[in-house]
Write a structure and sequence with these properties.
This protein is α/β, with parallel strands linked by helices. The protein contains 11 helices and 15 strands. Strand 14 and strand 15 form a beta hairpin. The structure holds pyridoxal-5'-phosphate.
Length: about 400
C-alpha cells in the first residue's frame, strides 16, 4: 500500500495553499533543487563534455523512458524522452500516416487540445491537399471510425471536461477497419491506470510537467508498440535517432527500436529534475493512484454540489468515465477562480466558463478536498468573485 502521507511530504508546497492544478503543472519535489545543483556542479561543471559518456547523459532518454513505461502500461524499451509534446504529436502522427499510405483521413475530436489539432493541420498541409483532418464531437468518435481513416488521433482525457475515452474499445474499432491510433496521454500519464500494451495502442505521446511533476518545460515522451518500432519511420529524422550518430554519415538511417524517435540533444538538466519526481512515483502503483484519485474526485463533486448550487458539473459523474480532474461551469468562472486563488485554493479556468480542478493523490488528500470545497462555498455564497480585480484576464488563465 502506498503511504500517501509520506509522498505528500516529499513535495514543496507553499504554506496555506491547496494545490488543485497539478494537472497543468505539478509541484516541486523537495529533493529536486539539491539534485539539480549536484548534476550541474559534479556532472556539467566537473565532467564537461565527458559527461555524455561518464554521467550517462546519452543513455538518459531511454533510461528515463523505461521509468515512465511502468506508469503507462508500456513494454520496457519502448518509451523514449525528448522534445515537447506538440513536436511528439507531429512525429507520431507522421509515422503513423506513412504506415497507411493509401488513406488520407486523420480522425480526431473537438475535445482534443488545440495544439494537437494545430500540429495535425500543419503536417497535413505539408503532405498535400488530399489529406483531411476530420474533427467530430467526442461522443461521435466511435461512429466515425470507418475504412477511410488512416489514423485515429485522440487525447484520452478532455482537458476541459475531464471525460475519459475508452482506449480499448476505440483502439479495437480502429484496428478492425485497418486504422492506426495515436493516443495523447497528457492528462492520463500519472493520473489514470493507462494500459498501452494491454489495449494494443500503436503510438502514444505525453508530457511530464503535468501529473508527472517534472517541472515547467519538462520533456515529452513517445511510445511506439513493439510491432511497429522497426517499421515506423521518424519524420523528424535528427542525428540522435540515427543508427550511428557518431559515424556522421551524410544519409539518414533510422536507429534500432525506440531510439529512432529521438531527434536532437536531450534536455539533460530537465530530465534530471524529472528523475527526482520519478523517485516518488517509484513508491506507488497506478492502480492505487487511480483508486485514490476516484475517491478524491467523487468527494469533491459531492461536497461542491452540496454547497454550491450555482455550479454545474461538466465532468462525467461515473468515476470510470473521467480522468483525475473535476470541472464546473459557471458564467463568472474566471473571476470566481481568481477569488479562489486569492484564498489559497489554486485551480484554473478554461474558456468559456470552465473552472477546473485537478486531483493528485501523491500530495492531495481528503482533508484538502473538504477544505477547498468550503472555501469555494464562501466564494460563491458571498459573491467574492464579484470584484473588478478578479475580472481582468491574465495571459495565462
Ligand atoms: C498540455 C498539452 C499539450 C502541450 O504541448 P506542449 O508542446 O508541451 O506545450 C499538448 N497536447 C495536449 C493534449 C496537452 O494536454
Amino acid at each position: 500500500m502506498t503511504d500517501f502521507a509520506a509522498t505528500k511530504a516529499m513535495f514543496d508546497l507553499p504554506e496555506g495553499v491547496i494545490y488543485l492544478d497539478g494537472n497543468s503543472l505539478g509541484p516541486l519535489p523537495s529533493t529536486a533543487p539539491a539534485a539539480m545543483e549536484k548534476v550541474m556542479r559534479d556532472e556539467w561543471g566537473e565532467m564537461l563534455i565527458t559527461g555524455w559518456n561518464k554521467a550517462g547523459w546519452m543513455a538518459q532518454p531511454a533510461r528515463v523512458g523505461d521509468r515512465i513505461a511502468r506508469l503507462i502500461g508500456a513494454e520496457p524499451g519502448h518509451v523514449v524522452m525528448g522534445d515537447t509534446l506538440s513536436i511528439k504529436v507531429y512525429q507520431a502522427l507522421a509515422s503513423a500516416l506513412e504506415m497507411r499510405p493509401d488513406r488520407r483521413v486523420v480522425l480526431s475530436d473537438s475535445g482534443n487540445f488545440p495544439s494537437d489539432l494545430y500540429m495535425a493541420q500543419g503536417l497535413l498541409t505539408s503532405l498535400g491537399a488530399d489529406y483531411e483532418l476530420r474533427v467530430v464531437a467526442p461522443e461521435e468518435v466511435a461512429d466515425n471510425i470507418t475504412d477511410e481513416i488512416a489514423v485515429l488521433m485522440l487525447t484520452e482525457v478532455d482537458y476541459r471536461t475531464g471525460r475519459l475515452h475508452d482506449m480499448k474499445a476505440l483502439t479495437t474499432k480502429a484496428h478492425a477497419v485497418g486504422a492506426l491510433t495515436v493516443w495523447d496521454l497528457a492528462h492520463t500519464a500519472g493520473a489514470t491506470d493507462v494500459k498501452l500494451s494491454e489495449n494494443n495502442a500503436d503510438f502514444a505521446v505525453g508530457c511530464t510537467y503535468k501529473y508527472l511533476n517534472g517541472g515547467p518545460g519538462a520533456p515529452a515522451f513517445t511510445y511506439v508498440a513493439p510491432r511497429h518500432t522497426d517499421a515506423a519511420r521518424p519524420a523528424l529524422s535528427g542525428w540522435l535517432g540515427h543508427e550511428a550518430p557518431f559515424a556522421f554519415d551524410l544519409d539518414y538511417r533510422p536507429g534500432a527500436g525506440i531510439e529512432r524517435m529521438r531527434v536532437g540533444t536531450p534536455p539533460v538538466l530537465a530530465l534530471a529534475a524529472l528523475e527526482q519526481a520519478l523517485d516518488i512515483w517509484d513508491l506507488t502503483t497506478m492502480a492505487e493512484i487511480r483508486a485514490a484519485s476516484q475517491n478524491l474526485t467523487s468527494l469533491f463533486i459531492e461536497e461542491v454540489e452540496k454547497r454550491c448550487p450555482d455550479l454545474d458539473l461538466a465532468t462525467p459523474r461515473d468515476p470510470a468515465q473521467r480522468g483525475s480532474q473535476v470541472s464546473f461551469r459557471f458564467e463568472h468562472g474566471y473571476a470566481a477562480m481568481q477569488a479562489l486563488i486569492a484564498r489559497g485554493v489554486i485551480g484554473d479556468f478554461r474558456a468559456p466558463d470552465i473552472m477546473r480542478f485537478g486531483f493528485t493523490p501523491l500530495y492531495i488528500d481528503a482533508a484538502d478536498v473538504r477544505a477547498a470545497a468550503e472555501i469555494l462555498e464562501d466564494v460563491m455564497k458571498n459573491r467574492l468573485w464579484d470584484n473588478p480585480a478578479y475580472k481582468a484576464r491574465a495571459a495565462v488563465t
